[in-house]
Write a structure and sequence with these properties.
Chain A is mostly beta strands and 113 residues long. Chain A contains no helices and eleven strands. In chain A, a hairpin with a 7-residue loop joins strand 9 and strand 10. In chain B, strand 5 and strand 6 form a beta hairpin. Classes of the chains: A mainly beta (113), B mainly beta (122).
Amino acid sequence: DAVMTQSPLSLPVTLGQPASISCSSSQSLVHSDGNTYLNWFQQRPGQSPRRLIYKVSNRDSGVPERFSGSGSGTDFTLKISRVEAEDVGVYYCMQGTHWPRVTFGQGTKLEIK
Amino acid sequence: EVQVVESGGGLVQPGGSLRLSCAASGFTFSSYSMNWVRQAPGKGLEWLSYINPGSSTIYYADSVKGRFTVSRDNAKNSLYLQMNSLRAEDMAVYYCALSVVPTAIRCGMDVWGQGTTVTVSS
Protein backbone atom coordinates (compact mmCIF):
# COMPACT_ATOMS: atom_id res chain seq x y z
CA ASP A 1 0.00 0.00 0.00
CA ALA A 2 1.03 3.59 -0.56
CA VAL A 3 2.05 4.97 2.82
CA MET A 4 1.13 8.63 3.24
CA THR A 5 3.34 10.64 5.59
CA GLN A 6 2.32 14.11 6.72
CA SER A 7 4.40 16.81 8.35
CA PRO A 8 4.24 18.47 10.69
CA LEU A 9 1.84 16.49 12.86
CA SER A 10 1.14 19.58 14.95
CA LEU A 11 0.97 23.07 13.51
CA PRO A 12 0.49 26.09 15.78
CA VAL A 13 -0.25 29.15 13.67
CA THR A 14 -0.94 32.80 14.48
CA LEU A 15 -4.22 34.16 13.13
CA GLY A 16 -3.70 35.82 9.77
CA GLN A 17 -0.44 34.02 9.11
CA PRO A 18 0.11 31.39 6.42
CA ALA A 19 0.25 27.65 7.08
CA SER A 20 1.64 24.78 5.08
CA ILE A 21 1.19 21.03 5.43
CA SER A 22 3.26 18.48 3.55
CA CYS A 23 2.19 15.04 2.42
CA SER A 24 4.59 12.52 1.00
CA SER A 25 3.70 9.19 -0.59
CA SER A 26 5.83 6.03 -0.61
CA GLN A 27 4.73 5.47 -4.21
CA SER A 28 4.09 7.73 -7.16
CA LEU A 29 0.52 8.95 -7.24
CA VAL A 30 0.43 9.45 -10.99
CA HIS A 31 -2.28 7.16 -12.34
CA SER A 32 -2.08 5.48 -15.74
CA ASP A 33 -4.90 7.80 -16.87
CA GLY A 34 -2.57 10.77 -16.36
CA ASN A 35 -4.34 12.11 -13.27
CA THR A 36 -2.88 12.37 -9.79
CA TYR A 37 -5.45 11.42 -7.19
CA LEU A 38 -4.19 13.23 -4.11
CA ASN A 39 -6.98 14.72 -2.02
CA TRP A 40 -7.16 16.81 1.15
CA PHE A 41 -9.70 16.70 3.96
CA GLN A 42 -10.42 18.92 6.94
CA GLN A 43 -11.96 17.64 10.16
CA ARG A 44 -13.03 20.34 12.57
CA PRO A 45 -13.38 19.39 16.24
CA GLY A 46 -16.44 17.19 16.76
CA GLN A 47 -17.32 17.14 13.07
CA SER A 48 -17.18 14.67 10.21
CA PRO A 49 -14.41 14.99 7.63
CA ARG A 50 -14.94 17.43 4.79
CA ARG A 51 -13.12 17.25 1.49
CA LEU A 52 -11.32 20.48 0.61
CA ILE A 53 -9.33 19.61 -2.48
CA TYR A 54 -9.29 16.76 -4.98
CA LYS A 55 -6.75 15.79 -7.65
CA VAL A 56 -3.98 17.88 -6.07
CA SER A 57 -5.38 21.35 -6.65
CA ASN A 58 -9.12 21.36 -7.34
CA ARG A 59 -10.98 23.18 -4.60
CA ASP A 60 -14.38 21.86 -3.61
CA SER A 61 -17.42 24.11 -3.86
CA GLY A 62 -17.64 26.43 -0.89
CA VAL A 63 -14.00 26.04 0.12
CA PRO A 64 -12.39 29.45 0.66
CA GLU A 65 -9.78 30.59 -1.84
CA ARG A 66 -7.20 30.82 0.94
CA PHE A 67 -6.87 27.02 0.66
CA SER A 68 -4.68 25.77 -2.16
CA GLY A 69 -3.07 22.48 -3.07
CA SER A 70 0.03 21.74 -5.10
CA GLY A 71 2.59 19.07 -5.80
CA SER A 72 3.34 16.17 -8.08
CA GLY A 73 4.56 12.59 -8.09
CA THR A 74 5.11 11.78 -4.44
CA ASP A 75 5.23 15.17 -2.71
CA PHE A 76 2.29 17.44 -2.09
CA THR A 77 1.40 20.54 -0.09
CA LEU A 78 -1.74 22.11 1.33
CA LYS A 79 -1.39 25.83 1.95
CA ILE A 80 -3.60 28.24 3.82
CA SER A 81 -2.72 31.78 2.85
CA ARG A 82 -4.06 33.44 6.01
CA VAL A 83 -5.29 31.24 8.83
CA GLU A 84 -8.66 32.04 10.36
CA ALA A 85 -10.14 30.72 13.59
CA GLU A 86 -12.51 28.40 11.71
CA ASP A 87 -9.52 26.59 10.18
CA VAL A 88 -8.71 24.86 13.48
CA GLY A 89 -8.87 21.11 13.11
CA VAL A 90 -7.06 18.11 11.69
CA TYR A 91 -6.07 17.93 8.04
CA TYR A 92 -5.61 14.65 6.18
CA CYS A 93 -4.22 13.84 2.78
CA MET A 94 -5.61 10.82 0.99
CA GLN A 95 -4.45 8.99 -2.10
CA GLY A 96 -6.97 7.42 -4.45
CA THR A 97 -4.54 6.52 -7.22
CA HIS A 98 -4.01 3.01 -5.91
CA TRP A 99 -7.73 2.42 -5.27
CA PRO A 100 -9.12 0.23 -3.83
CA ARG A 101 -6.05 0.42 -1.62
CA VAL A 102 -7.05 3.91 -0.48
CA THR A 103 -4.82 5.34 2.23
CA PHE A 104 -4.86 8.45 4.40
CA GLY A 105 -2.06 10.36 6.02
CA GLN A 106 -1.89 10.33 9.80
CA GLY A 107 -3.27 13.84 10.10
CA THR A 108 -1.93 17.29 10.96
CA LYS A 109 -3.50 19.15 13.83
CA LEU A 110 -3.72 22.89 13.19
CA GLU A 111 -4.21 25.10 16.22
CA ILE A 112 -4.13 28.81 16.84
CA LYS A 113 -1.01 30.00 18.63
CA GLU B 1 -29.96 18.16 0.09
CA VAL B 2 -27.66 15.19 -0.32
CA GLN B 3 -27.50 13.45 3.03
CA VAL B 4 -26.47 10.16 4.60
CA VAL B 5 -27.28 9.19 8.18
CA GLU B 6 -25.64 6.29 9.98
CA SER B 7 -27.20 4.27 12.77
CA GLY B 8 -26.79 0.99 14.58
CA GLY B 9 -23.72 1.67 16.65
CA GLY B 10 -23.49 0.67 20.27
CA LEU B 11 -21.71 -1.40 22.86
CA VAL B 12 -20.78 -4.96 21.92
CA GLN B 13 -18.59 -7.57 23.57
CA PRO B 14 -15.41 -8.83 21.93
CA GLY B 15 -16.35 -11.56 19.48
CA GLY B 16 -19.83 -10.15 19.05
CA SER B 17 -21.66 -8.81 16.03
CA LEU B 18 -23.29 -5.55 15.03
CA ARG B 19 -25.04 -4.29 11.93
CA LEU B 20 -24.65 -0.67 10.91
CA SER B 21 -27.06 1.10 8.57
CA CYS B 22 -26.75 4.21 6.44
CA ALA B 23 -29.90 5.92 5.19
CA ALA B 24 -29.47 8.04 2.07
CA SER B 25 -31.61 10.91 0.86
CA GLY B 26 -31.50 13.80 -1.59
CA PHE B 27 -29.91 11.84 -4.42
CA THR B 28 -30.48 8.80 -6.59
CA PHE B 29 -28.92 6.24 -4.24
CA SER B 30 -29.01 3.45 -6.81
CA SER B 31 -26.63 5.40 -9.07
CA TYR B 32 -23.79 5.91 -6.61
CA SER B 33 -21.04 3.79 -5.15
CA MET B 34 -20.79 3.88 -1.38
CA ASN B 35 -18.03 3.52 1.18
CA TRP B 36 -17.50 2.87 4.87
CA VAL B 37 -14.67 4.69 6.65
CA ARG B 38 -13.84 4.52 10.34
CA GLN B 39 -11.93 6.56 12.88
CA ALA B 40 -10.66 5.02 16.10
CA PRO B 41 -10.67 7.29 19.17
CA GLY B 42 -8.04 9.98 18.76
CA LYS B 43 -6.77 8.39 15.55
CA GLY B 44 -6.89 9.05 11.83
CA LEU B 45 -9.20 7.90 9.05
CA GLU B 46 -9.25 4.34 7.72
CA TRP B 47 -11.14 3.34 4.58
CA LEU B 48 -12.93 0.02 5.13
CA SER B 49 -15.17 -0.94 2.27
CA TYR B 50 -16.59 -0.02 -1.13
CA ILE B 51 -19.69 -1.23 -2.95
CA ASN B 52 -20.76 -0.19 -6.42
CA PRO B 53 -24.36 0.68 -7.36
CA GLY B 54 -25.32 -2.84 -8.43
CA SER B 55 -23.42 -4.60 -5.63
CA SER B 56 -21.37 -6.44 -8.24
CA THR B 57 -18.06 -4.91 -7.12
CA ILE B 58 -17.11 -4.96 -3.46
CA TYR B 59 -13.78 -4.28 -1.79
CA TYR B 60 -12.55 -4.44 1.79
CA ALA B 61 -9.52 -3.27 3.68
CA ASP B 62 -7.35 -6.14 4.86
CA SER B 63 -8.11 -5.25 8.48
CA VAL B 64 -11.78 -6.25 8.11
CA LYS B 65 -11.77 -8.72 5.23
CA GLY B 66 -13.53 -11.95 6.22
CA ARG B 67 -15.20 -10.36 9.24
CA PHE B 68 -17.20 -7.46 7.78
CA THR B 69 -19.76 -7.62 4.98
CA VAL B 70 -21.07 -4.60 3.09
CA SER B 71 -24.42 -4.67 1.34
CA ARG B 72 -27.05 -2.29 0.06
CA ASP B 73 -30.75 -2.19 -0.66
CA ASN B 74 -31.39 0.30 -3.44
CA ALA B 75 -35.15 0.03 -2.99
CA LYS B 76 -34.72 1.24 0.59
CA ASN B 77 -31.96 3.76 -0.18
CA SER B 78 -29.85 2.05 2.45
CA LEU B 79 -26.30 0.83 2.93
CA TYR B 80 -25.29 -1.73 5.54
CA LEU B 81 -22.19 -3.03 7.26
CA GLN B 82 -22.45 -6.38 9.01
CA MET B 83 -19.61 -6.64 11.51
CA ASN B 84 -18.75 -10.03 13.00
CA SER B 85 -16.00 -11.26 15.31
CA LEU B 86 -15.52 -7.76 16.66
CA ARG B 87 -12.25 -6.89 18.36
CA ALA B 88 -11.15 -4.09 20.65
CA GLU B 89 -9.34 -2.49 17.71
CA ASP B 90 -12.65 -2.19 15.82
CA MET B 91 -13.84 0.39 18.32
CA ALA B 92 -14.35 3.56 16.31
CA VAL B 93 -16.74 6.03 14.76
CA TYR B 94 -18.01 4.53 11.52
CA TYR B 95 -18.85 6.83 8.63
CA CYS B 96 -20.75 6.17 5.47
CA ALA B 97 -19.43 8.32 2.61
CA LEU B 98 -19.70 8.76 -1.13
CA SER B 99 -18.30 10.71 -4.04
CA VAL B 100 -20.86 12.95 -5.73
CA VAL B 101 -18.84 15.71 -7.37
CA PRO B 102 -16.93 14.34 -9.06
CA THR B 103 -18.23 10.80 -8.95
CA ALA B 104 -14.79 9.23 -9.30
CA ILE B 105 -14.01 7.39 -6.08
CA ARG B 106 -10.32 8.09 -6.61
CA CYS B 107 -11.09 11.74 -5.88
CA GLY B 108 -12.19 10.89 -2.37
CA MET B 109 -15.57 11.26 -0.71
CA ASP B 110 -17.31 14.63 -0.64
CA VAL B 111 -20.42 13.54 1.27
CA TRP B 112 -20.09 12.11 4.77
CA GLY B 113 -22.55 11.20 7.46
CA GLN B 114 -22.23 12.23 11.08
CA GLY B 115 -20.96 8.79 12.05
CA THR B 116 -22.11 6.10 14.45
CA THR B 117 -20.00 4.95 17.38
CA VAL B 118 -19.07 1.33 17.97
CA THR B 119 -17.67 0.39 21.37
CA VAL B 120 -16.14 -3.05 21.81
CA SER B 121 -15.73 -3.92 25.45
CA SER B 122 -16.55 -6.63 27.94
